[in-house]
Write a structure and sequence with these properties.
Blueprint lengths: L33 H60 L6 H20 L17 E8 L8 E6 L2 E2 L4 E3 L1 E7 L3
Helix pairs in contact: 1-2
């Protein structure tokens, strides 16, 4: 049978419309157990303290390892200079017998010292005749020179040591300038 009931009119009560969302009552969830919350807080505090202690131990271990690495490096560098001292001792021991041996001994010491610096990554540079570069040279004088272009290193007063990656010290040089 078809439904013959009258349609609801505006004056007849029908279902109430839903209120807007801002007027709806908030859903109240049951409060979690406060003992469980305190337990979780205690666990997180403990985890935080352990993490901070681990970080502190890591810092201390790194400081110890850095100190040991620096000491090992110092030992290696000092050991590199021992042959130089041995040659000096030999030159001094033979100085009384043959004074000319002192010159030979000093030359040998110089070569050994240059080898040590080279092995440490600081070779001696030969800068005479090169263009002046403030990154590699320290100008101590400028002289007129008609044979070379201005800015050319004409004399090395104190040699520079180092390669392209690092420099121990710049060379002190005399630079050519135009005649005034």
């Amino acid at each position: 049978m078809p439904d013959t009931s009258p349609e609801p009119r505006g004056d007849t009560p029908g279902p109430e419309p839903e209120p807007p969302p801002e007027q709806m009552p908030a859903v109240v969830e049951p409060e979690p157990d406060s003992a469980a919350l305190r337990q979780r807080i205690t666990e997180l505090e403990d985890q935080s303290l352990r993490t901070m202690a681990d970080l502190d131990n890591l810092r201390k271990r790194h400081a110890r390892e850095l100190t040991l690495a620096r000491e090992e490096e110092r030992v290696q560098v000092a050991s590199s200079w021992l042959p130089v001292l041995d040659t000096l001792d030999l030159a001094l021991a033979h100085a009384e017998a043959d004074p000319a041996s002192i010159v030979a001994g000093v030359a040998a010491v110089r070569e050994q010292a240059l080898q040590v610096l080279n092995q440490l990554g600081y070779p001696r540079r030969d800068d005479e005749g090169t263009q002046f570069d403030p990154a590699w040279h320290e100008a101590v004088a400028a002289v007129p020179d008609d044979d070379r272009p201005a800015g050319t290193v004409v004399q090395v007063v104190r040699p520079g040591y180092g390669g392209a990656a690092r420099q121990l010290r710049p060379a002190a040089v005399v630079v050519a300038r135009e005649d005034e």
